[in-house]
Amino acid sequence: MKKVILSISAMLFAGVAFAQNVSDVDQTGALNGALVVQIGSNDSDVDQIGIANVAIVGQVGAGNESTVYQLGAFNTAVVGQVGWGNTSTIGQGIWVGNTATTIQVGVDNNSDVLQIGNFNTANTTQVGWGNDSSTLQLGDANYSSTTQSGLFNDASTSQFGALNFAFTDQDGWFNDANTTQAGLFNISSIEQDGIANYASTTQLGFFNLSTVSQTGILNASVVIQAN
Known about the structure:
The chain has one helix at about 1-20; strands spanning about 20-30, 35-50, 55-75, 75-85, 85-90, 100-105, 110-120, 120-130, 130-140, 145-150, 155-160, 165-175, 175-185, 185-195, 200-205, 210-215, 220-225. By secondary structure, the chain is mainly beta. It has a 17-stranded parallel β-sheet that branches. The model is unreliable at about 1-15 (pLDDT under 50). This is Curlin associated repeat-containing protein. Keywords: Signal.
């Protein structure tokens, strides 16, 4: 009987160890705020250096990982993860007022956001399995919106300058969308509905406008604009 009790205790301890949530919050500065809510077995890391940065993380499921780095003032990061094995990384560097929101629902979705500058906004929504999104914003007041629904879609957005706007919407499987903007007041929209479509948009200069809409299978589009 003693051996049975010890065996059950060991099993319960192993189960608890496996199912634990892990949260680490490090704050240096003044008036920084972090809220972390975890249900299941998840991992969250928040590092804040500066003034009045805000990080909100909600995780439900197992194996979800969220990392938030904030350096500066009045930056805001919001992460919501529901499912299994989703990964989100948000880095907000110098200076002020950057906002990043990442929502992941499903399995093994990955999102990376890096914002360096002021008042940049990056919104990422992933629903499905194995979707990958990366957003880089270097400058001021750039806006990026990425929405992925389906399986193994890939989206990349890079913005350099100010007041550039990029919209990516993928619905389906294995779609690939890449947007690069360098300059001022450029606008790019990519919509993909189907399987294995490819779209690349590059805008260099000022006031360029590009719209790409793909429906079906194995369509390919390359747009290059410069002035």
